[in-house]
Amino acid sequence: MLNRYTPTTLLGAAALAVGLSAAVFSPDAQACPSCNDSFMHELKNERAHTAVGRDLLAAVANQEGLPLGSASQAITASSVAAARGGDVVLDAIFEGADFIEIIKRDEGLDIPATSYVPQDAEPDVEFTIRLDEGETYIGQGVIYDGFLSDGKIPGPTLKVTEGDIVRITVENTGTVPHGASIHAADTQTSKYIGDIGPGQSKSVTFRANMPGVYMWHCAPGGHAIPMHVLFGQYGMIVVEPKETKYKLEEKLGHGPDLELYMIQHEFYASGKDAIEGNPIYTAFNGKLFRYVEEPIVAKPGDYVRVNFLNIGPNLVSTFHLVGIIWDFVYWQGHPEAWMPGGQTVTAGPSDSWVIEFRVPPDEGAYLMLSHAVGSTARGAIGVLVADADADTPKTVLADGPEYTEEEIDEIRETAMRAISPFAPAERLNGLPAEPDRPVSYGPEVDEVFVQIIGNSYYPKVIEIEPGTKVTWVNEDVFTYMAGEFSGIHNAVAIDGPELFATGMLGHAEADSFTFSETGEYTYICTPHPYMKGKVIVREPSN
Asked: Cβ–Cβ contacts within 10 Å for residue 4, how many?
């Protein structure tokens, strides 16, 4: 029996009541836009006088009329107001642009202007990023089921030159909304490439005016932005300086012999672990111990430049090479933000550095690691080998390994574990990861609580006796933004002896169902259908 929070307007419950096929709520279904509308109706009616209801209605009212959502159409040079006069000579692309006085001011300063250009400006360089959900192999016998960019984690490394006009097109080849935030763009990005529905694509055009090492990541508007980063959709974009040289390049008179693009990042086995910053693994460039298994080789005396980015998204990194003292480091990769020497660089999530050093005239192995050694023990370690026979110059990109479906199928035959932050992972040849092991409750337990946290159910799998009440409690806190209630969840059965549907739950709200028939039940969250949980009702022990 569902409790008093059960809404009469819940789409999933209504569908179940009239006997619609459970396939409507399959895990591959698109996120449910009607759930958002249904929840808004509840807020304006039966929830209007609750504490959560008042907060969310206030958020809706406060955001009314603000430009928070995606643009319905791109602003172009031909569609905006006519330019006004002034002394600064502007590039022709700004003819007719809005806010022309601000543009003139910024173009006339001795610091870089913002990245704003009209969206129909002709680009110097173009990229396409494809976002979806799926599996990749992260090494050590582990398959990861999460969110991917171009089929891998991290996604593609993007390189541009200071001053380039850049166009990035984002294609959603997945089943839920995606989008992108481009940290190298000092202008709107989510406005143009946020909230991209399955099968859709959008583009943003900007001028890369500030050199440095930046992060890009999925940002689907109000739709659980943090979770798409926690689940794996991100990469590096580097804006190389056009005229100013890095110090070691100036002193040696040539560019690097080895240029290494290095991302440190984390993998999570549950949404709860993701929210609490407890990764099951960490990695450099997408694979556990990748550069132990594939050492990076340079000659003694080689000039090495590391473009380092700590994606995180939770842990601090103190990147270090054993046996190396830096010649120069550059905060966020800006060539003028330099310091000499040093043993480590400290980087919080999304912090970056350019690091320069010379390989000593001494052959051997130089370990690359975070001196926050918990990360090192979980996979973020590599080896730079000094070898007189090394083949340099060379470049190592930050892209994660990429596999075909056939290769993943072959790996699965001997893999030991699969992990997924948002659903029980398939059991392979070894033991499942801890968050996916069934939590068993005996007949003395009358009620079991399942947290909804980090766009995931916790525990993901429970085993109970008939007559046990299961109560789902929403511990996600994120509120209303850009037209969407991102923190609302429910639990709707898609398979099992009985069908059930909880109400749509805001933060700290709960709903229950008492299981009477034995068997296995699979359920999902209709606003976020990649979320999956399981209830196993065993035969009575007496």
From this structure: 7
- pLDDT given for residue 482 in this prediction: 66
**β-pair type (258-267, 281-284):** antiparallel
Q: What secondary structure letter does DSSP report for 429? A: S
Q: How far is Cα 148 from Cα 138, in angstroms, rounded to an integer?
A: 12
Query: What do you get for the CA distance between the two ends of the chain, in Å?
Result: 25
Query: How many Cα atoms are found within 13 Å in the side-chain-facing hemisphere of 290?
Result: 22
3-state SS of 380-396? CEEEEEECCCCCCCEEE
Contact 113, 378 (CB under 8 A): no
Greater confidence (375 vs 172) lies with 172
pLDDT tens, position by position, 231-243: 999 999 999 999 9
Tell me: the pLDDT tens digits for 435-485?
999 999 999 999 999 999 999 999 999 999 999 999 999 999 877 776 677
CB atoms within 10 A of CB 298: 24
| Cβ-Cβ contacts under 8 Å for 454 (sequence gap 6 or more) | 227, 230, 268, 270, 271, 272, 273, 274, 275, 421, 476
Distances (CA, A) of 252 to 297, 325, 342: 20, 17, 20
Measured on CA atoms in the order 357, 358, 362, 368, is the torsion positive or negative? positive
Q: Taking 60 as the threshold, does the pLDDT of residue 78 lie above it?
A: no
Q: Where are the alpha helices (DSSP H) in 64-201?
A: 100-107, 190-193
The predicted model gives 164-172 an average pLDDT of 97
CB atoms closer than 10 angstroms to residue 251: 13
pTM of the model: 0.87
**CA-based nearest residue to 74, from 120, 38, 33:** 120
Say which residues have a Cβ less than 8 Å from residue 516's Cβ, sequence separation at least 6.
Answer: 466, 467, 498
Residue type for position 217? H
Is 488 a residue whose pLDDT tops 70?
A: yes
